[in-house]
Each structure stands twice: as C-alpha cells, then as structure tokens.
Amino acid sequence: MASPTDRKYTQTHEWIKLEGDVATLGITKFAVDELTDVTYAQMKAAGTSLKPGDPVAEVESVKATSDVYSPVAGTIAEINKKLDADPSLVNTSPYGDGWLVKIKVSDPAPLNALMDASAYDAKHHS
Predict the structure, then answer these.
(1) Mean pLDDT of 49-78
(2) Residue 24's Cα: distance from chain center in Å?
(3) Which of 24, 92, 100, 120 has CA atoms 20 to 30 A from the CA of 83?
(4) Both ends of the chain: CA-CA distance in Å?
C-alpha cells in the first residue's frame, strides 16, 4: 500500500499532515506492521509544549512499546480520545481515524527536511 501523498514522513515512521498551522501526527503503516496489534496508546496532554524530537505518545503492542516523536515545535492542541476506547484504530486506519495528536505548529520549517511519500515508500517497501 503506497503511503498517502498529502503528508510528510520521518525516519522514525511518523507521518505529519499540516493544515494551516495545525498538524495531525500519527504512525505509518510500516510502523503498524512492525508493531503488530496495538493494544494501548498514551498521548501527552493537550497543552504540552514540544520541541522537534520530543515524544508525543507511546504506542504499545503485543510485541513492543514505541515512542512517537514530533518532528516540529509547537503545542499539543488535541489528542485522539477515540484511541482510549479503541487503540486498534491505529492498526486499522493509521492514516485516518488512528491519528494520535494534533499540534499547533510554531515553526513549520523542520517539515521541509522530512521525506515525501515516494521517498518514504522507496526506503521502506521492497
């Protein structure tokens, strides 16, 4: 499955989609496949200040626990409360309902250094 082209991708398998000054962040299908079944997702609280590289969430699966990092500076504007009741949304809809946090971005410049979908796919799909 090709990655959606309307967002950017990190080396650590996060995707980020900027709309205005708010970016939605989640993990990629590649990351979901590596983790297998996600059993729990814990996001930092809304209002948390972030620098690029700060963890925004922890995703737990039957295989491993992984930190999810923000590639941008800003403040967490919203967390995906649906994941409290149904963390499997991360598996079934990683690019849709399985998003993790929305970030009010203070500096979008770091997004320019991220991969587009074709670069990410070339790296992670054989």
Answers:
(1) 96
(2) 7
(3) 120
(4) 11
pLDDT digits (tens, 9 = 90+) for 38-48: 999 999 999 99
Q: Between 124 and 25, whose confidence is greater?
A: 25
User: Cβ(93)–Cβ(1) under 8 Å?
Assistant: no
* Measured distance CA(99)–CA(15) in Å, rounded: 9
Three-state DSSP string of the chain: CCCCCCCEECCCCEEEEEECCEEEEEECHHHHHHHCCEEEEEECCCCCEECCCCEEEEEEECCCEEEEECCCEEEEEEECCHHHHCCCHHHHCCCCCCCCEEEEEEECHHHHHCECHHHHHHHHCC
Handedness of CA 10, 15, 18, 24 (dihedral sign): negative
Distance between CA atoms of 12 and 10, rounded to whole angstroms? 5
**pTM over cut 0.90:** yes
Q: Which two tokens stand for residue 77?
A: 């504007």
